[in-house]
Design goal:
510 residues, alpha+beta, Arc Repressor Mutant, subunit A, 3 domains, three-stranded antiparallel beta sheet, 15 helices, 16 strands, 39% helix
């Protein structure tokens, strides 16, 4: 029986604040900082300590809520989520439940079938947990940032790093509006891009600062009923998210086809095995025993604060893409590639400004094809390269003006990428400028034809495909420094003259 998946997401995004959610401890890179060094009595859960709300974290959360077109609650409340967290010293998490920061938003995504609106149920603030490291028996050390355990500990054992405990965490919960893996990927990619545009999250999923949890059920196609769902916890890569959801859809569908029942549970994704693994029964809200956090007053969001944050929002990806298509004549695909990263979009517009006399589509093509290719091979981001926007514009201008051809331009760009030298200096130093002297080009063409009488004869006898071979030989003789179109025209003219002299027609071989 064909089934339709019903997918909703819970997204956890660490906010790029300097300090933690309820104390003054620094937020550090959990993958490189010395463990358990950025912890104080408040985030360590010591008795008698009092949390204080991080204003910058609230402002960042407001940016996201407004960008997702949510309704912001004028008064929202923090709560204690009473679920045992072995990596939270307090033994509970400060979060929001009944009165979250914002509700009822949306994100528009592009799919193969067109635009789709995905509802946002809620956006709320909470604190992140620490990080546990589980080591098997016989392991002699943990991660490089953690100390080796005492030799008297045989394992298995767990180590905990509390540097991340208390880091501001934004949770974004969607409605169960996603109906395919394609839509899931489009939403996850679009939300990650939005968070990076807003400057509230780095999007570096490998470091765990952005994590997805997917709630999945399947139902017979055409049905409006909801099936029993499972939740895939804490997936920290887009590839892993797609693979995990694909696997779970297939598993649930096969189970129902075999007459079985889907159990409501929480599962983890085993990347090595390529399968989901049962972890525990799925909790409901009442299992967490939420109650208002007695040490924090209600958080009042004044209308003036909301409007100030709204006025400071950057141009968002969808609006930027529409403008690129309208103002620069780019295709939807090209514009989507350029706006996927805010730094790339800014680079493109800086190149447009530097090359105001150039067609924007030409700059877009050189950026998204040749320069992106060099960046991908080198593993560098746009902010890490030596080729500035004005440098790229200069190269495009040299190509379009005929001073170098496109192939030479790619060679020059590769050297610019490695050395940081401007295109004009590389061309001058290496003698790469095009030969624009038509008599000289004609002389080289004549030499090629004179050196290859057998091929000329075959051409005159009707083997017209040799024309391109002559062009290639002439370009080789000119060391690639001539306009191929000029070379082709002169080859055609000289071959035509030989055809007339031989009294044959190359059009029909007679």
């Amino acid at each position: 029986m064909p089934y339709e998946p019903v997918i909703g997401l819970e997204v956890h995004a660490e906010l790029l604040t300097q300090s933690k959610m309820f104390c003054g401890c620094a937020v550090v890179d959990n993958t490189s900082a010395e463990p358990n060094r950025f912890v104080c009595p408040i985030c360590a859960g010591m008795p008698g300590t009092l949390p204080v709300i991080n204003e910058k974290a609230v402002e960042y959360a407001l940016r996201v809520a407004l960008a997702l077109e949510c309704t912001v609650a004028p008064v929202n409340v923090f709560a204690r989520k009473n679920y045992f967290y072995p990596d939270l010293p307090k033994g509970y998490q400060i979060s929001q439940y009944e009165l979250p920061l914002a509700r009822n938003g949306r994100l528009v995504i592009e799919t193969g079938s067109g635009e789709k609106i995905v509802g946002i149920r809620r956006v709320h603030l909470e604190e992140d947990t620490g990080k546990l490291f589980h080591l098997a028996a016989g392991a002699d050390s943990g991660p490089s940032t953690l100390p080796a355990p005492p030799s008297t500990v045989p394992g298995p054992y767990s180590l905990v790093d509390l540097n991340r405990a208390g880091v501001p965490l934004l949770e974004i919960v969607t409605e169960p509006d996603l109906r395919s893996v394609e839509e899931l990927k489009a939403f996850a990619t679009g939300l990650r891009t939005l968070l990076r545009y807003l400057g509230v999250n780095s999007g570096d999923m490998e470091k765990g600062v952005l994590r997805f949890e997917a709630n999945i059920s399947v139902r017979p196609q055409g049905s409006s009923a909801l099936g029993t769902r499972t939740e895939i916890k804490n997936v920290n890569s887009l590839r892993g998210l797609v693979r995990a959801v694909e696997y779970e859809i297939h598993r649930q569908s096969a189970l129902l086809d075999a007459g079985g029942k889907v159990i409501q549970e929480t599962v983890g994704w085993d990347e090595t095995a390529g399968a989901t693994v049962s972890q525990r029964g799925k909790e409901e809200a009442h299992d967490y025993r939420y109650f208002p956090e007695p040490d924090l007053p209600p958080l009042v969001i004044e209308p003036e604060w909301i409007e100030r944050v709204r006025a400071e929002l950057p141009e968002l990806p969808a609006a930027k893409q529409a403008r690129f298509e309208r103002d620069y004549g780019l295709s939807p695909y090209d514009s989507s590639v350029l706006v996927a990263e805010r730094a790339v979009a800014d680079y493109f517009e800086a190149a447009i400004k530097a090359g105001a006399d150039l067609p924007p589509r030409q700059i877009a093509n050189w950026l998204s094809s040749s320069l992106f290719g060099l960046m991908n091979r080198a593993g560098r981001d746009i902010g890490e390269i030596a080729v500035g926007p004005a440098d790229l514009a200069e190269l495009v201008r040299l190509v379009l003006s005929g001073q170098i051809n496109a192939n030479t331009g790619k060679t020059v760009l590769a050297e610019m990428f490695e050395t940081g030298e401007p295109a004009s200096e590389i061309i001058k130093a290496r003698g790469l400028a095009l030969v624009n002297d038509e008599p000289e080009i004609a002389r080289q063409v004549a030499e090629v034809l004179a050196s290859n009488p057998d091929q000329v004869q075959l051409y005159l006898e009707g083997k017209a495909t040799l024309e391109q071979w002559f062009v290639g030989q002439a370009m080789k003789a000119l060391r690639g420094k001539a306009d191929p179109q000029v070379v082709k025209r002169l080859v055609d003219e000289q071959l035509a003259a030989k055809s007339l002299g031989a009294g044959v027609s190359t059009r029909d071989g007679h």
